[in-house]
Amino acid sequence: MRERGAVRTGSRPQSGGRPPARGPVGGILARVPLTTVYVLLLTAVAWWLASQSRAGRARFVRHNSSNVHHMEVGQWWTLFTSGLVVDGVPAWAGIAAVAAALGLAEWRWGSLRAGAVFVAGHVGATLLTEGAMWVMLSTGIPGALSHERDVGISYGLVATVGCLLALGAAPIRYFGLPALALALVVAWALDQQLADAGHLIALGIGVLAAQTGWLRDLPPRPGPPPRDGRRPLDG
């Protein structure tokens, strides 16, 4: 007779076994699915734009700019498609910045909160700057353009970085956040472009988001499990 405690071997997998362990890269990507998808979209759009002619790239940017004209004719979808274009910096630099900032935010807060801060910065700063432009056009103030080029990732990026700094340790809050604000003020004073004002607005949105209990009272997320699949003992 076979002993009761004997282990049966064979080709059938044993129940209750450990799931296959993910590699270090797979474990990171599993924690930041939103960042992974967004970075892939930015990379695909940048790769496609690089294959187009200069006129083709200009036409794509023109059709996806979230400016006053597109808002007036009901093309509100440009609020989101404008965030798929890396503009003003090399594509690789912008995508790397998004991967670092949004990835860190998603790692700490989860996909929903990180995405909400990024979208609030992008959409909120766009609406406020374009709203100011609409007021200038309506009142006849010179210098306003209804077909202004307005694309890029920078509003959402600045809001996310500002929120991260505002929720960081004391040295980061006291030195990093004022340094970023000063750099944005200097950029606006030198260039006085619409995007420079939008960056300051996006920073304010990120700092305000950090003051909400939705983020400030968020408990820390647990780290990745040990490599051997065992849970650490309490105490």
UniProtKB/TrEMBL annotation:
One Pfam family hit: Rhomboid_2
Domain of life of the organism encoding this protein: Bacteria
Keyword match Acetylation: no
Compartments (UniProt record): Membrane
Membrane topology type: Multi-pass membrane protein
Assigned keywords, A-Z: Membrane, Transmembrane, Transmembrane helix
Transmembrane segments: 28-50, 76-104, 116-137, 157-190
InterPro entries listed in its UniProt record: Rhomboid-like_sf (IPR035952), Rhomboid_2 (IPR046862)
Region of interest: Disordered: 1-22, 216-235
Chief location category: membrane
Record's protein name: Integral membrane protein
